[in-house]
Design goal:
globular; 417 residues; single chain; mainly alpha; two-stranded antiparallel ribbon
Length: 417
């Protein structure tokens, strides 16, 4: 076993693990609760820098052959995801001073990094579960409103259903191919065997459940609303990014063919339309962001219709632009002791007079999420639909563009407050 290869390849993961141990170790040594904020930010930043260094140097390695590998295609998404986690931690300072919160966030980030580098379904499954399990606790950790426990339970049931569906899909693919490598999914994409197609459908359905694609979205808005603002920001950015990067890892660079094309086009298209339409009726900012994230998950899954290199570029850039805008919104939102009151859109009235910079930040983020030029959100959507058009799916591209314009109203509605 090459320990130097393991240390270098898994440097971002090791830094997160050391961060968790440092936070817990200091609290155990002192014998009293400590604030893990500084250590969490320090080690998450270090992990992001390490991931970018691996990308910049073009480092490639497979410390655990057929299970875990690192290359520029994995290192850059890791760097993006970890970099997005830093501002989420920064906006958590006023809400959380407890060690458990920061330990759980670092543990979840560790799982997300495993997902991005996974080469086998056991590693992918382990990564998704390590990423997801801490979030169930994070939802109730703030406990700022009565429905927080209910929200966590709903999110747990939703996650459990996704886990069972994923395992069933993996078992079908293993039964068909005799392999637990993620590449078995790509092999199945070119097969007409019913067992292979069933495996593809179940694995894709599990990813849809995790990303809250319609019709698997029902309880996601409740979980977003019941969590505290930093946790909702974490769910909307990091967890969403982790799931889409898992989908990117599973589909790889293999072109999709009918009937998988219909599965990847119809439900994400419905998600775009329904997410944008449902967001119009929301009075809660977090529920509105939840439905917005449902629509944006549709755009992201749409990118999988394109060719391999194009889908990687489109998804990574989209996650960066989408994540930054969401963090910007949550950083600028009014905060106060009455969490339910501050979460209402009405609380934004007169914000420009009270805090003009915060109002400008929210307006910029909303216009970018709506996809208006010249903001990053426009470039992100352009890359997605360009990829779909290049693959020859003109009808789906036009339908997706129409669905995206349904969201203009509710984004502009936030600004008019």
């Amino acid at each position: 076993m090459n320990w130097q290869l393991i240390l270098t390849s898994m440097l971002p993961e090791h830094l997160l693990l050391v961060g968790m141990l440092a936070i817990l170790g200091l609290e155990i040594k002192s014998g009293r609760p400590r604030d893990g904020f500084a250590l969490a930010v320090l080690f998450t930043t270090a992990a992001a820098v390490a991931a970018f260094w691996l990308y910049a140097t073009g480092f490639t390695g497979a410390p655990f052959l057929h299970h875990f590998s690192v290359g520029p295609v994995a290192s850059l998404p890791k760097a993006v995801l970890l970099a997005l986690a830093v501002p989420v931690l920064l906006i958590s300072r006023d809400d959380f001073a407890e060690t458990p919160y920061y330990t759980l966030v670092l543990a979840s980030l560790y799982g997300a990094c495993l997902v991005i580098s996974s080469d086998s379904f056991p590693t992918l499954f382990l990564g998704i579960e390590i990423m997801s399990l801490p979030v169930y606790a994070l939802v109730v950790l703030g406990m700022l409103r009565a429905q927080s426990a209910e929200a966590a339970l709903k999110y747990l049931v939703l996650g459990g259903t996704a886990t069972a569906t994923l395992l069933l899909g993996i078992s079908f693919l293993y039964g068909w191919s005799g392999s637990l490598q993620i590449a078995a999914f790509s092999w199945a994409l070119g097969s007409s065997d019913p067992l292979a197609l069933a495996g593809i459908a179940l694995v894709t359905a599990a990813l849809f459940l995790k990303a809250a694609i319609v019709p698997f979205h029902a309880w996601a808005p409740d979980a977003y609303e019941g969590a505290s603002a930093p946790v909702t920001a974490y769910m909307a950015t990091i967890i969403k990014a982790g799931v889409l990067l898992a989908a990117l890892r599973v589909f790889g660079t293999t072109p999709v063919l009918p009937p998988v094309v219909g599965l990847l086009a119809i439900l994400p298209l419905v998600s775009m339309a329904w997410g944008n339409l449902a967001a119009i009726r929301q009075a809660s900012v977090r529920r509105m962001i939840a439905y917005s994230s449902i629509a944006h998950a549709g755009y992201l899954f749409y990118a999988l219709l394109g060719d391999g290199r194009g889908r990687w570029e489109a998804i990574v850039f989209y996650l960066l632009a989408y994540g930054l805008m969401n963090v910007l919104v949550f950083a600028a939102l009014p905060r106060g002791a009455d969490d339910e009151r501050q979460d209402r859109l009405d609380a934004l009235k007169g914000l420009y007079r009270r805090r003009p910079f915060a109002a400008i930040m929210i307006a910029t983020a909303m216009l970018s999420l709506a996809g208006l030029p010249p903001l990053p959100g426009f470039v992100a959507k352009f890359l997605v639909f360009k990829n779909v058009l290049a693959a020859g799916y003109t009808g789906y591209a036009v339908a997706g563009l129409v669905a995206s314009y349904l969201g203009l109203y509710f984004y502009l509605r936030v600004i008019q407050y």
